[in-house]
Amino acid sequence: MSYANVASGLPGRPARPRRTGHGLGGHRRRTTGQALVEFALIVPMFLMISALAIDFGRLFYAYVAVVNAAKEGAVYGAQNPICATDTTSPLCPNPNNVTWRVANEASNLSGLTAAVVECLPAGGGAAYTDLASCRQGDTYHVRVSYAFDFVTPILSQFYGSGLTLQADSWADVINSAFSPGPGASLTKYACFGSGCTPVVTPYLDTNNNLQYVSGNVGATITYQITATNVGNQTLTGLKVTDTNGALPFGSPTCPNLPTSGLAVGSTWQCTYTITAPNTNGQPSLLLSNTATLTATGMQQRQATATVQITAPQGLSVAQYVSPYQNGGNGNGEPGQPSWGTATAITVSYNNQAPSAPVWYELIVSNPGTVTTSGITITDALNGSPYTLPVGTTNCPTAPTSLAAGASWTCLYSVPFPGPNNMTGAVTNVGTATASGGVTATGTATVTVGQCAAPNAVIPNLIGMTNSAATTAWTNAGFPSGNLTSWNGNSSSTAATQNVQAYLCDPTTTTMTVTKK
Does 314-450 match 451-516 in CATH topology? Predict the structure, then answer.
């Protein structure tokens, strides 16, 4: 029996090689290499997908811009049919022509063109060979083209030099074009402000939504009326009227109509202003005004400008202060029924009068013409929030909305220095906010100081009887003879005092008190 194969295991099978320490390092090298290969394969795919996404995004943006440009061109052409390009007529320099409007609407797209600008008869059939034949009721057609190039190589291989994006738009003609006889075009533009540049209103935004030039009630509206002779005869017998009223003919911005007539290609222009009226209680109002032009041998022309007048939510805050609950000198301001209108006072305290209870009146009102909603009212003393005593007799629950002309009043007292321990100039700020970002504030200031002998603090005698007032006066350190009080029954009380309470005055001060 041979023992040659015993060490190797089974008979006839060679021995299994031993593992060495070099095997693990080789495995790691293979794993790292595999990851690098996978990364090298994935990165180009990721970049290609990203490039494709960017290209298709550019394509979508360009298509939307082309569509909007066609609509802008058709709408303008329907109003000014002869103005296809700036060379069609001397009356149509930029920006008053279709091709300029198309290019400006998609100004980010270089090379965009109005490939077709034509006018189609209302009854159907081929387009007019001459835009001068275009009449009111016909159809204005604008086709816009744009050569779109892909940046992704794989798409460039499929589409070659790129795609041609094209959009068509049609609009009903509202103004006749050139007339072989007398003819005129009439426009009316508007803007808000004095010295502003009037524009078409309403107009279409980029999403083809109708938009209006807008401003607030009471603002200045500037209108501009332009009449141009687009015929081949001098316009005579000119007359221009406007629904806003009589035009200011003869003024620097609105010259008189030419008595000799308006020559071919000539333009007359009138600029004037009005004040935006109230909206009759509504949040907004659309105000349309129409100008009418008539001339001998020509049908009248009309042009309308519509603006939106907005009534902004009104909000105002007033903060007043007084040493008396009734305000003023103890019974309201002299000769006025109001609580008082002082926004700053000075008060003092000492051992005999350790606290000066100052009264504040916070008034929130709506001076606008529509209801103000979403109201929130806060108060702050020297920058720190102060809780108003809402829900009490003198300070009712704060409103969340105020009708036009309505107001809310809160009357409350703060002792100085008292628990607040505030001295020096103490500022009280009442703030009201409303929906739409409307904010208003009111401020009142109290200067607080300590009164040192030999001076004394003037007492508050309002509401006291004659005897009680005399006692309070002498207890404060003033001679009884310096108080001029009233004569009457014992139940009558002080209504006013001619020296403000809580002032630090010499003890020689005299006081006059009146009764209710």
Answer: no
